[in-house]
Each structure stands twice: as structure tokens, then as C-alpha cells.
Amino acid sequence: MSESSPLPGFSTEFLKISSPEPHVALVEILQCWTGLSKVFDNISREPTVRVVVLASALPRLFSAGIDLSALGGLADGLSDEPARRALQLRDQVLSFQSCITSIERCPYPVIVAAHGIAYGLSIDIMAACDVRYAASNTVFSIKEVDVGLAADIGTLARLPKIAGNHSLLHEFAYSARDFSAAEAEKLGLVSRVVQGGRDEVLTAALQTARTIATKSPIAVLGTKHLLLHARDHTVQENLDYTATWNGVMLQTADMQQLIKSMKTKTKPTFAPLGKLPFKL
């Protein structure tokens, strides 16, 4: 891997943010995941970034899931009245969901590199990413039923739209059993299993990020945006929306730059995107 350079002001106490390649942001989870929302929302406004890699900085695990003591204390200090208590708990869940959705909300492609233990919350995080790699030593589990709840931060919402094997998905979700990286690939959760551990899978993710970062940022951003739209709409709705989207985006100078580079056999250069809106 290349030597990383920091992205000033982006790191937090629990999340390390650096730029190991031009236009690539590397987000490494040191301990706590709840700061992901602020970090990804900040990255979403950074015009020098074109692709993001998400990994754990810990050598033996991606995430062991939610802290059980924290889970047991979720209701502390809430109202004794059932309706108000339910509303307060709902607000907590929505806050957690928004934190994970910030990954999907990011306009740039996010590549996740999982390794080691990847339980519970790990699946929520990975399902919100665009490209998912796993080291061969990764052990997964949709763990929530073992602590008495249905997964509520994204796994059950996104995995049915990701998985190619729904029978296997249901088995994993109901049983909470461990499953291997090979089974995760069979499920469709990951597209690539990399032999080794953290360093090997992170290297593979950064290689893919490097390739994506050389492409037209307008084309890549639009592709992610339209893929997510297609997931949540009918084919005709997406075709109509794409026609409107590209009615504007086909006017990009990036196309002329690419045509010029093909003719001259030179490497294209693209202008920065500039400050983006909070949400496209």
C-alpha cells in the first residue's frame, strides 16, 4: 500500500481518515462506529475525493457488533409511559439508521474491506457500501436474534436487495450462525474473497479504488446515483429519470476530455467536482 496522507480535520477520536492514493479517502474504524455519519457527510462535501475505502484499523476484527452493555442501557432514562417510551426508542433507532445510511448517502462509491470477526453491525455497515470485499479469514454473523431482536439498522432492509440466494439469507438471519467468507460470496454479500487478512483485503480494495479514481468523476457519481435510484424504482421510472439526469450530465466537459485523450493517447485529467449539495 502507498503511504497515507491525512485529510485535515476529518479524523475523529474513533475514526482515522487519510488519503493513501490521489482522490481516494480511506476511513479506518478504530473503535466506535457512531461517528460515521459526521465523517461521511464531511467526505461527501470534499471535492478532492472520488472514491472511499472503508476498513477496520483493528488487526483481528472488522466489528464484533453492538456493545451488549450499551444495548441493555438503551431504555435508561426514558419515559415510563408506553407510547412516549416507544417514540423515544424509535428516535434512537432512526438515529442509528441515519448513521449507517450516511455511507449510502455519500455520492462517491464506497468500497468496504472486511476481515476477521464481522458480526451484527458489520453486516449493516457492509450492506450500505457499494463494493464489498472480504479477507478469507472473515467470519460473519447476522447476530441480532441471539440478543433478542430483529436487525434494525439496515441488514434486513438492504440484504434482500443485495443477496442472490434468499434461502441462505433467511437461514443466516434466523439462525444467527457463523458463516465464512466463501458463504458470504455465495450469498452475494461480497463480490470478492481475498486470501489473507486485513492487509491483503485492504490492498485489494485500494487497487480497485485507484482504478475508479481515474475515471470521470461526473460519470462515476452519476452511475452510483442512478444505480441506487434503479434499486428503489421500477425499470420505466429509472429510464425516465436517467433521461432527465443525462439530459444535463451529457453536457459535461469530461466527455470532451476523454475523447481528446483517446485521440492523443494521453491520460485524461478532470476538473474537481466542486462543493456538492448535502444530498443529490
UniProtKB/TrEMBL annotation:
- Any Pfam family matching the protein: ECH_1
| Alphabetized UniProt keyword annotations | Fatty acid metabolism, Isomerase, Lipid metabolism
Q: Which GO terms describe its cellular component?
A: mitochondrion
Q: Name one GO biological process term.
A: fatty acid beta-oxidation
Pathway(s) this gene product operates in, as recorded in its UniProt entry: Lipid metabolism; fatty acid beta-oxidation
**InterPro entries the record matches:** ClpP/crotonase-like_dom_sf, Ech1-like, Enoyl-CoA_hydra/iso, Enoyl-CoA_hydra_C
Q: Name one GO molecular function term.
A: delta(3,5)-delta(2,4)-dienoyl-CoA isomerase activity
Give the similarity note: Belongs to the enoyl-CoA hydratase/isomerase family.
Entry protein name = ClpP/crotonase
- This protein's species is Daedalea quercina L-15889
